[in-house]
Amino acid sequence: MDERLVGDFLGRHSADVEEEIRKAAAVEIMPRFRRLAEHEVDQKSGPHDLVTDADRLAERHLTNALGALLPGSVVVGEEAVHANPLVYEALQGESPVWIIDPVDGTRQFVHGDPGFCTLVALAHRGVVLASWTYAPAHDQLATAVRGQGAFLDGTRLRSGAPEPDRPLEVAVSHPDFTTDEQKRALLGLWTDGVAPRSCGSAGLEYLAVARGEVDATAFSWEAAWDHAAGLLLVEEAGGAQLTLTGAPFRITGGNSLPFTAARDAATAQKVAGLLSGTAGPGPHPGTGDPAPAS
Predict the structure, then answer these.
(1) Cis ω on the peptide bond leading into residue 47 (within 30° of 0)?
(2) From 223's CA, which of 29, 50, 203, 206 has a CA 20 to 30 Å away?
(3) What is the pLDDT of residue 50?
């Protein structure tokens, strides 16, 4: 299937994709919000990496529904990859790929915090063509199609530029998900003119950047389901993104980390420079690692 046919699919079926995302949330996620039983929550790699029945069942719903909407497509979902890491290799194949994070911000979901969302992106040959970010607790849906802009509930999103007289607010990877080398890179953000804080749901942080409410992100992991939807949303809202070497982030992997997405190109370059140490030394306020997200 070529990109033209994928574009034709989006023109005819974007509303159907939105409907299935809302349906998955309504049937599998929201009935369990603040009602999870102990047996419905499991750990994956550790106590900060949780999975629930809502994650598994919402991903199953979306896998079946989206695959049926676009025959010949494949699915790379967070829970499917956890069960079989080889599924991730589909990102480098020739088929259109649905990239799914059924509950982005599972820790928040488990704790009864509404700061979680469902992320879906459609990619082809490593290029993200469309994305959907749905925050079901707030009933907010952000969408983006490459070259056609970003929207929140039908209203055009424009990220704008940070105010020059205010510190840059940067959402930063939680220290539990960073290596020692990445921690050292992230410490470059602890300088005058920057206000780093630990991130919550990656998808909602990207939405905040696209809305101009947060100035930038600095993330240290590259799982496509966390980033594909949000990066397109930010770019289509007028923002920019860079990895540690200054190259764009690739959903297929092999990126130099950490990387940033920001409201505009100048901010992305500044944050990437601080992460790589090329922005020059700055005073260190000695605040230590980011505080855990609530």
Answers:
(1) no
(2) 29
(3) 77
